[in-house]
C-alpha cells in the first residue's frame, strides 16, 4: 500500500502519509463498515481514506495459464522478425477451454495460424492503424473460436522489432458482476470516511493473468455508481504500480 502512496505523492505532488489502520485510529467505528487505512496530507491537512482489495482468481485453471504461456511463446518467436513495434490486443473468455489438452496438434496449428496472421498483417499496417486478425486465424484452424474471442493487431511505430501483449477483459458476465460487487463494496466503505481524497488499491496475489488494461476495461463495463466515491485506483503487482484511469462521464 505504501508503494501506491509513494507513486501518488510523486505524480500529484502530494504529501500523504499513513496514520494507521482505521480500526486502531477510529475506535468509534468498531463493528461498523469501515475502510482499511486512515491517512492525511502533511502539507494541506486533508484527510485521505484508502481501501485495499486483493485481485486474484481463486483456483485459476491450468487452461488459462496455458493459453497465455502460448501467446508469450509466439511473442518471443516473432520479437526480431517484425518491421516495427506492435501491440496484440487479446480478448479471451476465461471460461473457454481451448482444445489443446487432448489434441496437441490443435495447439501447434493455432500457434502457426496466429503467427502467420501477425506476419501477414504487419506488412500492411500503418502507424496507429489496427486490424482484427481473428478471421485469418479461424481459416487456418480445425476448431471454431467462440464469438467472444478477438485478436486485434495495432502498429505502435516503425522503430525496433517488438510485439507487446495487451490482455483485455473477456470473462463471463458473472465474473464482471463479481468485480462490480467488490468495487461497490469498497465504494460504500470509502463513503463512510467522508474525506477529501479516496484511493482504492488492488494488490495482485498469486498467479493471475490480469493486467492494468483489463482492470481499466472492467471499470468501463460496470455501473459508474459503484465507484462514485473513489477518486483514484491503483494496481500493484510486486514492485510495479500503475494508476487505473476511471472512465470519464
Radius of gyration: 21 Å
Helix content: 25-40%
Please give the order of strands in the largest beta sheet.
Answer: 1-2-3-8-9-10
How far is the N terminus from the C terminus? 28 Å
The coarse overall form would be elongated
Number of structural units classed as domains: 2
By CATH reckoning, the class of the largest domain would read Alpha Beta
Major sheet characteristics: 6 strands, mixed
Show unreliable segments. none
Mean pLDDT: 85
Number of strands: 10
Quickly give the structural class.
Answer: alpha/beta
User: Remind me, CATH topology of the largest domain?
Assistant: Trna Endonuclease, Chain: A, domain 1
What's the helix-strand series?
A: HEHEEHEHEHEEHEHEE
Give the name of the CATH architecture of the largest domain.
Answer: 3-Layer(aba) Sandwich
Q: What's the tally of helices? A: 7
Strand content: 25-35%
What this model shows, in words?
With 249 residues, this protein is α/β, with parallel strands linked by helices. It folds into 2 domains: 2-58 and 171-244, Trna Endonuclease, Chain: A, domain 1 (3-Layer(aba) Sandwich), CATH 3.40.1350; 62-168, no CATH class. The chain is 35% helix and 26% strand. The protein has 7 helices and 10 strands. It has helices at 2-12, 22-25, 62-78, 104-122, 134-140, 173-193, 212-220, and strands spanning 16-21, 37-41, 47-55, 85-91, 130-132, 150-157, 162-168, 197-204, 232-237, 240-244. A 6-stranded mixed beta sheet has the order 1-2-3-8-9-10, sandwiched between helices. Strands 5-6-4-7 form a 4-stranded mixed beta sheet. Helix 4 packs across helix 5 (134-140). The longest helix has 21 residues, at 173-193.
Amino acid at each position: 500500500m505504501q508503494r501506491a502512496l509513494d507513486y501518488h505523492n510523486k505524480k500529484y505532488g502530494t504529501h500523504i502519509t499513513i496514520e494507521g489502520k482505521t480500526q486502531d485510529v477510529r475506535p468509534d467505528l468498531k463493528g461498523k463498515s469501515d475502510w482499511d487505512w486512515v491517512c492525511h496530507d502533511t502539507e494541506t491537512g486533508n484527510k485521505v481514506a484508502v481501501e485495499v482489495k486483493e485481485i486474484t482468481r481463486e483456483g485459476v485453471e491450468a487452461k488459462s495459464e496455458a493459453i497465455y504461456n502460448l501467446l508469450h511463446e509466439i511473442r518471443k518467436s516473432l520479437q526480431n522478425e517484425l518491421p516495427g513495434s506492435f501491440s496484440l490486443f487479446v480478448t479471451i473468455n476465461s471460461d473457454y477451454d481451448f482444445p489443446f489438452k487432448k489434441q496437441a496438434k490443435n495447439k501447434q496449428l493455432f500457434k502457426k495460424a496466429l503467427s502467420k496472421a501477425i506476419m501477414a498483417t504487419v506488412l500492411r499496417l500503418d502507424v496507429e492503424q489496427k486490424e482484427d486478425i481473428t478471421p485469418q486465424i479461424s481459416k487456418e484452424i480445425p476448431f471454431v473460436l467462440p464469438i467472444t474471442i478477438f485478436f486485434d493487431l495495432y502498429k505502435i511505430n516503425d522503430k525496433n522489432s517488438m510485439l507487446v501483449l495487451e490482455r483485455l477483459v473477456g470473462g463471463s458476465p458473472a465474473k464482471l458482476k463479481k468485480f462490480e460487487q467488490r468495487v461497490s463494496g469498497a465504494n460504500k466503505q470509502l463513503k463512510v470516511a467522508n474525506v477529501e481524497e479516496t484511493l482504492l488499491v488492488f494488490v495482485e496475489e498469486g498467479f493471475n493473468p490480469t493486467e492494468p488494461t483489463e482492470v481499466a476495461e472492467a471499470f468501463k463495463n460496470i455501473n459508474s455508481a459503484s465507484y462514485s466515491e473513489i477518486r483514484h485506483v491503483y494496481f500493484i503487482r510486486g514492485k510495479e504500480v500503475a494508476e487505473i484511469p476511471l472512465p470519464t462521464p
